[in-house]
Amino acid sequence: MRPYREEVVVSAYADRLEALAADAADRCTGCAKCFEACPTARESGMDMGQGKARVAELIALTRQASATAEGLQQWLNACDGSAQCNAACPEDINVRQWVTIAKMKSVEAKRPLGDSAKVAATRFRNMAQAVRLMASMQLPSETLRKILQPAERRTADVLFYTGCNVLRTPHIVLNVMDILDAMDLDFDVVGGTAHCCGVYQFQEADLPTYEKTGHRTFKRFGQSGASKVLTWCPTCTKNFDELERDVAAPSFGLDHISEFLAAHIDELKKDFVDQPKRRVVIHEHQGIGATVESIRTLMRAVPNLELVELPQDSGFSYACGGQAAKFKGREQAIHRALAEGAIAAGADTIVTMYHSCHRALAGAEAVYPSLKVVNFTDIIAEALGRGGHPDFYRLYKTGGPMDEAVAAARTFLTSNGVKVDEASMQSLTAEIFNETGLAGGREAFAKAFTDLARSH
Ligand code: SF4
Ligand code: SF4
Predict the structure, then answer these.
(1) Phi then psi dihedrals of residue 325, to 5 deg
(2) Of 53, 252, 306, 420, whose CA is between 20 and 30 Å from 127?
(3) What is the tally of structural domains in the chain?
(4) Of all atoms in ligand 1, which is nearest to the CA of residue 40?
């Protein structure tokens, strides 16, 4: 049983999580290879020779519900979910999952549930406001409505689950819809904040609310009767893999969209049309299933596309931003090295895997004019003779003329019945431009969109 907070009614879900952590502790031999492989423990300046002590503390926290030891707390705080520990473990333990549960438990032991619920709600509200505003600036109301329809009411065999944050760069969602359309699949698209994966509630140890959000979202997929759910967001994918699928086997298959497309590459290739010559570098992140290999497979199949292999720091985090944003300097160094390495290797295009990486790199052209940044879904949709959806986020971040982005935002905001004011535009400017990454200045966006707010 979970002895941390007396006010928490222990649920069957919480008990199953506990069992996963207990199983990891039972199988662990204490060799410390996981800690020694941890890039963020090293980046945080921890003593890498003390791995056995850190693992012993992790086992104690799991078995005895002891207070989190200081050294272990540093490790938990540093973790950004890279999964390098999983790859290093000779016992094939999902150490990232174990550390994720331990992080939640250490927060749970230190903070009353009411405080955790408030922190989680604030984080969720801030994210949801930004996502709703950005989606309303870039998507017509009929598309947004389609995405937000309750999952359990869908009848399609395949659900493409977007998560929340990709709606800041919705051309990616439109690309995937084009690709699945081209495959003639019986699919439906589902996402938005009403189908949140519950990451904030879990991280902030508000398990009762997590069970009503992320855990419920996963159950709603099952209620729809779909045989397959395709994920987009790496965080949703990681959470659903580790905190849901491993807790109770679902009635549907779960794949990242890149894995699904790579598995159908022969079918896709038949419909590929001639493409311009390109030399492409993928901005790679290890840590989420077979996504890197899958995106390489997809790129290699595109006519006239030459994939340039570039050694890169792909093991530091499973995606840009999120928990990895704690290491801003390291992220900046990764982005610069990628762009400069790509130019030195004669590449003209950087391909992003995920939406957070796309946001980080979308403005690279302002700093490195010879480089174009596109998402892998841009390339596949275009190879199928579809796609071509404007990437307004790239326009925001490069800091050039905003006329096209403002004109689109004016139309879409009206279609979605959303009013904007100067204050929301100021906070959106900060939200967009304070992220780590390569970008032009914020002035063009701030001015154009403040003017829009004044005249809207
Ligand atoms: S997931 Fe990555 S950052 Fe977290 S403990 Fe494992 S190796 Fe370290
Ligand atoms: S690498 Fe695996 S077996 Fe070794 S200490 Fe870490 S979790 Fe335990």
Answers:
(1) -65, -10
(2) 252
(3) 2
(4) 3
Q: Among residues 64, 88, 110, which one ends one of the domains?
A: 110
How does residue 1 score in pLDDT terms, banded at 50, 70 and 90? very low
- Report pTM: 0.94
Q: Where are the beta strands (DSSP E) in 305-433?
A: 305-307, 349-352, 372-375
Give CA separation, 6 vs 2, 58, 60, 110, 111, in Å: 9, 22, 20, 12, 12
Q: Can you tell me which residue has the tokens 């899958």?
A: 294
Per the domain annotation, does 376 fall within a domain? no
pLDDT, tens digit, 9 for 90 and up, residues 229-265: 999 999 999 999 999 999 999 999 999 999 999 999 9
85 & 120 share domain: no
The Cα 432–Cα 331 span in angstroms is 16
- Using only C-alpha atoms, the chain has a radius of gyration, in whole angstroms, of 22
- Ligand 1, residues 28, 93, 96, 100: which to mutate, most atoms within 8 A of Cβ? 96
- Please name which ligand lies nearest the alpha carbon of 28: 2
Torsion angle defined by CA atoms of residues 311, 312, 315 and 320, in that order, rounded to the nearest 10 degrees? -150
Does 79 share its domain with 117?
no
How much distance in Å is there from the Cα of 74 to the middle of ligand 2?
18
Amino acid at 454: R
Give me the domain span that covers residue 37: 12-110
- In this structure, the strands spanning 158-161 and 187-190 are parallel
Q: Tokens for 64?
A: 């005895």
- The helix (run of H) or strand (run of E) holding residue 289 is none
Q: Is the dihedral of CA 206, 212, 217, 222 positive or negative?
A: positive
DSSP state of 264: T
Dihedral (Cα; 361, 363, 369, 374), 10-degree rounding: 60
Bridge partners, 373 (sequence order): 350
Taking the CA of residue 52 as reference, the ligand 2 atom at the shortest distance is 5
pLDDT tens readout for residues 82-109: 999 999 999 999 999 999 999 999 999 9
**Do 73 and 155 share a domain, yes or no?**
no
Whose CA is closest to atom 3 on ligand 1? 79
Q: Which of 95, 106, 327 to mutate to test the pocket of ligand 1 (most atoms within 8 A of CB)?
A: 95
Q: How many angstroms does the Cα of residue 351 sit away from the middle of ligand 1?
A: 25
The type of residue at 158 is V
- Same domain? 185 vs 144: yes
Same domain, 126 and 104: no
Classify residue 53: in a domain, yes or no: yes
Domain boundary pick from 110, 131, 163 = 110
Q: Residue 208: helix, strand or coil by DSSP?
A: helix
Tell me, yes or no, whether 331 lies in a domain.
no
Nearest CA to ligand 1 atom 6: 85
